[in-house]
Amino acid sequence: MTTVTSPLAGRAIALAAVPDPVFSGAMVGPGTAIDPVREPSEAVAPVDGVIVSLHPHAFVVVDEAGHGVLTHLGIDTVQLNGQGFELLVSKGDTVTRGQSVVRWNPADVEAAGKSPVCPVVALEATAEALSELREDGDVKSGDALFLWK
User: Fold this and answer.
1) Catalytic residue among 55, 57, 67, 72
2) Domain assignment present for 64
3) Which of 17, 24, 89, 132 has the least C-beta neighbours within 10 A?
């Protein structure tokens, strides 16, 4: 059982409410999303594991059970070409839950015309594999978002 924690402070929202059909339709996997506080912050690793994919706007951490957790910082933020994002780790690095991965400012993303909402997705999972899914209420960085069996 893997506990996936919030990479950011903000408000939990259902994945279905994310303004992107790929995420809202759970095409990449089930999970939840965070509407982040609008201040400079650091997105942190939601699980202990290895960074297997790393972009300014998104990263994937795979835990020792082989579970890949995607954190996507905002919607359509790939179009910002990394502007406003600072990578704090490298692909292949081993990280611990709560370790800073990317520094960014959700307010800047919003000012650029993009949604700062951050999907946190269990890659290649089924909805049945997740439990205790958090889809509302305020969350702090490190609060539990869901359990992955």
Assistant:
1) 72
2) yes
3) 132
